[in-house]
Amino acid sequence: MHAELSAAQFVSLTEGTPLLSFKNNISQDMEEKEQPTGGPHFVGKRDELVQAKRSFRTLEGRDILIIHHGGVFYAMDSYCYHAGGELQNGDIEEFDGKLCIICPNHKYKICLAQGESIYKSTNPKEKPPVPRWYSKGVKQRTHTVTENNDGDVYVKLSDVAGWIESDYFQGEKGKIEREKAAAAEKKKS
């Protein structure tokens, strides 16, 4: 059984806790809870969403980014799994044959289709070391987008059970963590 904390208690308990360490503890608690699934939810008309290119919606308390790029709709959690950066402001580029959004805060590359995080690195054991793309696995929760014949676009929230790292920045607790991350970024500037 888990006790509920107020926002003030949460901030007090987590102050000074390294973000990665805290995220790992939260993930164990979250695995026991079922993630919200539902829908499909109407998110707009095709023409409006195509023109906007990126649209923000809150569905069942979850902040979602809907992207139209290259004739295809994508939907994913709106905040980067790493530190809560607003993906709505990220560039979209192709890396290693995968279409990715780049988090504007720390340049993390997240595949639009599956939410996989990728990075380029070299293996120092290779002679000569050759830069290659590697996967960190799925870090960003993605959602299913459908469209009907009338041009209505719907999003069905992910039904993948268990913890995905972008879950950390969702809901009221996530809002607190995003605010703390943004304050830390301001101090660096």
Commentary on this structure:
There is one protein chain. The chain has 189 residues and is α+β, with helices and mostly antiparallel strands. The chain has helices at 7-14, 19-31, 46-52, 171-188, and strands spanning 41-45, 54-59, 62-69, 72-77, 91-95, 98-102, 109-111, 116-121, 132-138, 142-147, 152-156. The chain has a six-stranded antiparallel β-sheet with strand order 1-11-10-4-3-2, with helices on one face. Strand 5 (91-95) and strand 6 form a beta hairpin. The chain is globular.
How are the secondary structure elements laid out?
Elements: H1 7-14, H2 19-31, E1 41-45, H3 46-52, E2 54-59, E3 62-69, E4 72-77, E5 91-95, E6 98-102, E7 109-111, E8 116-121, E9 132-138, E10 142-147, E11 152-156, H4 171-188
Antiparallel strand pairs: 1-11, 2-3, 3-4, 4-10, 5-6, 6-7, 7-8, 8-9, 10-11
